[in-house]
From TrEMBL:
It comes from Lentzea roselyniae. Residues 46-116 form the Serine aminopeptidase S33 domain. This is Thioesterase. InterPro entries: AB_hydrolase_fold (IPR029058), Hydrolase_4 (IPR022742). It holds the Pfam family Hydrolase_4. Gene3D superfamilies: alpha/beta hydrolase.
Length: 218
C-alpha cells in the first residue's frame, strides 16, 4: 500500500491545531501522512496545496472552507490530485445566503464593531475553546479573512462531477451551519465519493470518519 501525503486545510478562521486533533489518528491508522499547514488566508491555503503537490500527486481536503478550497484546486489540477477528504462542505457554487457565509459575515461585523470577546461570548463548550484559540491566532487578519471566506465560491455541481478520484465526505445530519443536503449534493455529484455522517453530539472528532470513507471510495 503506498504512503499517501494528505494535505488538509482548516475551515473559516479555524487552524491547523484543530485539523491535527481531528485527522492525525484516523490517517495514521491507514498509513497516511498528514500535512496540516499553518494558513490564515485563502491565498495561503492555495499556496500550501501548490507547494505540497510539487513532486507528486497528493490527497487533499479540509473542513468547510478548507474542503471548498481543496476541491476547487483539484478541479483545476486533476493530474496532481490523488484523492479528496472533505468534511462539512457548506455550500455549492456561489455562497449566496448559505448559513455558513452569513455566520462568517455576522462574526466579522461583531469583531470589527464590538471586539473579539463579544463575538466569542455567544459560543460554548469545545467550540468556544477552539474559536478562542484560533481566532486569536489570526490577529488583524481575522476580520478580512471572515469577509473573504463569506464571499468565496465553492465548486459548482458541474465542477464536482469532474473529480474522478477516491473521495470521502463527512456530513452532519443536525448542523444548521453545514446542512447535510450540501454534503449529499457533493457526494451525488462526485463520481467516486462515499458519504459518512455524524451528529453534533459526536463533534468534532467524528469528522475523521471522512478518512475511512476515502479509503472505501478507493
Amino acid at each position: 500500500m503506498p504512503v499517501h501525503t494528505v494535505v488538509l486545510l482548516p475551515g473559516t478562521a479555524s487552524d491547523e491545531v484543530f485539523v491535527r486533533s481531528v485527522f492525525t489518528e484516523p490517517l495514521s491508522q491507514v498509513g497516511a501522512v498528514l500535512n496540516a499547514p499553518r494558513v490564515r488566508t485563502l491565498s495561503e491555503r492555495l499556496t500550501a496545496l501548490e507547494n505540497a503537490a510539487a513532486s507528486r500527486p497528493i490527497v487533499v481536503g479540509g473542513v468547510s472552507l478548507g474542503a471548498h478550497v481543496a476541491a476547487k484546486w483539484a478541479v483545476a489540477n486533476p493530474d496532481r490530485c490523488a484523492g479528496l477528504i472533505l468534511a462539512l462542505p457548506a455550500w455549492t457554487g456561489a455562497p449566496d445566503r448559505a448559513p455558513a457565509a452569513l455566520a462568517a459575515k455576522a462574526s466579522a461585523a461583531i469583531v470589527a464593531s464590538r471586539g473579539l470577546e463579544t463575538a466569542l461570548a455567544g459560543t460554548t463548550g469545545w467550540l468556544h475553546d477552539e474559536l478562542s484559540r484560533a481566532w486569536r491566532g489570526y490577529g488583524d487578519l481575522l476580520v478580512p479573512h471572515l469577509e473573504e471566506a463569506a464571499e468565496s465560491p465553492a465548486p459548482t455541481l458541474d465542477e464536482l462531477k469532474t473529480l474522478d478520484v477516491p473521495t470521502g465526505i463527512a456530513g452532519c445530519t443536525d448542523d444548521p451551519v453545514h446542512p447535510i443536503e450540501i454534503a449529499e449534493e457533493w457526494a451525488n455529484a462526485i463520481p467516486r465519493a462515499v458519504l459518512t455522517t455524524t451528529t453534533l453530539d459526536a463533534y468534532p472528532h467524528a469528522l475523521g470518519r471522512a478518512v475511512q470513507a476515502w479509503r472505501q471510495a478507493g
